[in-house]
Structures are given as C-alpha cells and as structure tokens.
Amino acid sequence: MTPQSEGASSPAIAVRGLRKSYGAVEAVRGIDLDVMRGEVFALLGPNGAGKTTTVEILEGHRDRTAGEVSVLGYDPARSQRDLKERIGIVLQSTGVEPYLKVEETIDLFRGYYPHPLPLDEILDVIGLEEQRRTPVKRLSGGQQRRLDVAIGLAGDPELLFLDEPTTGFDPSARRGAWEMVRNLQSLGKTIVLTTHYMDEAEHLADRVAIMVHGRIVAQGTPGDLVRREDSTTIRFRLATWPEDLPPGLEARSTGGGQYTIVTDAPTHRLHLLTGWATDRGLELEDLTVSRPSLEDVFMELTAPPELGQGRE
Ligand code: ATP
User: Which residue CA neighbors atom 19 of ligand 1 most closely?
Assistant: First the structure.
C-alpha cells in the first residue's frame, strides 16, 4: 500500500480527534497532535493519562475507537506490514538471548529487515563499539537499554518510539542516553518518546505534549510551555525580616531566613530590591532569579483541582 500525501514537509504523525475507550473507561478523549519529521517529540503525563494507549495506537498495536491517525502517511490500523518496516519500537525491556554477543544480537534483528542499518553505524550511534563482542548478560543495565535501542534501530526506521528510555538510570548513564538520542536525531530520525522526567523532556524534546485524563492540556516547545507562566521568582536570604521593603516588593517568608518575591516584572523588582539592600549596606545572600521549569508547569497542569490553586 502506498502512503497517502507523504512528502518531506508533511508531518511524520498527524492525529485528529483520537479517542479510545476500554469498556466504560475513556482512556483517550479526543486528542489532536502533529509530530514533524526529524523532531524529538515527548509525550508527558501522570500515570494513567493515556500515553501508552496513544503510542500503541500510533504503532499499530491497538485499535482506536474514533478519530484520524496518519503515521508516515499510513493509517496504522490498516497498514501493518508497510508501516512496521519504517518504524522502530523500543519497549521498556526487549527479550534477547543473554549468551549472544552484542553484535550477534544486533545482526539477528537486522536480518528481519529488507534494508537494515549497517552494524557499525548502529554501534557508533548507541555507543557500544567497545562492547561489541561482550555477551548480553554481561552488559550493565544502561548498556542493555542501549542494546534495546540498537534493536529498534536495526531496520533503519524513519520513526522511532522510545518508551521511558532512561528509567532506572544513574545520572551519568542518563547523560549518555541523551547523547544517544541526539545522535539519532542527527541521523534524521523522528523520535517520539515518553518519559516521566521533565528535565529529560526539557533537554531532548523539540516539542512536548502534556496529557491529563486522556486529553492534551498543553502542547508546544518546552520554552513555549514555560513561558505560559509569566512569573519569575526572586529568592534571597536575610537574617532579619525586611520590614521596610518599598511598596511593590511583596516578599514571602519560606522559612530559615529565606524570602521569595514572585513577579511578572523581574527587572523592576530586582532594581528596587538591590537598591533597598545597597542603601542599608545589606548583603542579599543566595540571591537567585529563576523562571519556572517544565516540571513546575507540569505540576501546575497535572495537579488535582483542589491542590491547583494554592501551590507555592
Ligand atoms: P503510565 O504512565 O502509568 O504508563 P499511561 O499514561 O501510559 O500511564 P495508559 O496505560 O494509556 O496510561 O492508561 C490510560 C487509562 O486506560 C488508565 O485508566 C488505564 O487503567 C486504562 N487502560 C489501559 N489499558 C487498558 C486495558 N487494556 N483495558 C482496560 N483499561 C485499560
């Protein structure tokens, strides 16, 4: 089957009005999303939000209840074989033979595809050249996860689905995995990843979508999402309560001599604050000015309604 309306500028994935119910449970409640070719797209959301269901529908592993879905120009509900040759799926753990060597394992999976990616290129991208002759059972957890990615890459897919690629990793293994994702992107691959780590999404994703209760509540670049919150937080420490702060500087004590000012005019407030402190010969210890992180935005969007208002 020939994919419809496929071109370099068409999105790799286009979803309109997607719904999925499991009996009475509405797991996905009418979502729209586009993933552009060559971009890293992160699907975020709390447990049970509907991410896995959505990704499985895109992969062709689950039927949908309603809506339009196009993946590389195919309808994944209809074009199993053609589509499968062009996508790679990296699940949370892939069952592989523990006594085979790394290169033997990758070659085994390459054999399933008509146009596999060269072995050396795969080893280079995933960073397992030195372990190419190591039996799988002797790889560390992080190295095994890289091998899972190698298997997903074997068929030289245009689109790769990565399910929580760094869950359980130590910080240095996570950095290594992030570098690997960037290598994949530089090969021109489109990547859809799910993750529970907001810093990971912020580092890796060109665009993110946040799902809550089967709906997409925010979609855009991490920068766009962070800019939704127009507040900046100024923090400082002082030994005594700053009683005579000028009007407009409403500081809140957060304990331990620490104060915060939340403002949408940080330049002006900082000018007032530092002028006030300089006039009194005070040093504002631990002075920081910070924008909300993607994690702050995520918490705000996914907080239960009764907690959503009073968050600090
Ligand atoms: P997690 O972050 O925990 O993996 P998720 O965002 O991937 O969660 P889903 O696994 O898609 O969420 O689940 C969405 C909703 O659909 C949940 O309420 C879940 O219980 C329900 N669900 C998922 N799979 C099935 C199924 N096979 N049968 C019935 N209900 C299901």
Answer: 48
Q: Is the CB of 163 under 6 A from ligand 1?
A: no
**Is the shortest distance between the CB of 50 and ligand 1 below 6 Å?**
yes
Phi, psi (5° rounding) for residue 69? -135, 130
Distance in Å, CA 26 to ligand 1 centroid: 10
The reported pLDDT for the residue numbered 34 is 95
CATH of the domain at 277: 3.30.70
Q: Two tokens at 295?
A: 């994690």
Domain that holds residue 250: 230-291
The rounded Å distance from CA 25 to ligand 1 centre is: 9
Specify whether 247 is located in the same domain as 204: no
Overall pTM > 0.85: no
- Which of 200, 172, 161, 128 is closest to 51 using CA atoms? 161
CB 127 within 8 A of CB 172: no
Confidence band (pLDDT; 50, 70, 90) for 305? low
Average pLDDT over residues 7-23: 88
- Which atom of ligand 1 is closest in space to residue 28's alpha carbon? 14
Whose CA is closest to atom 26 on ligand 1?
22
Residue 194 CB–ligand 1 contact under 6 Å: no
Q: What is the spatial distance between Cα 14 and Cα 76, in angstroms, rounded to a whole number?
A: 11
Number of domains observed in the structure of the chain: 2
CA distance 1 to 191: 24
Could you give the angle at the alpha carbon of 89 between the alpha carbons of 83 and 94, nearest 5°? Answer: 140
* Same domain flag for 146 and 284: no
Query: Under a CB-based contact definition with an 8 Å cutoff, are residues 234 and 266 in contact?
Result: yes
Residues 219 and 234 in one domain: no
Tell which atom from ligand 1 comes closest to the C-alpha of 46. Answer: 2
For ligand 1, mutation pick of 28, 29, 31, 51 (most atoms within 8 Å of CB): 51
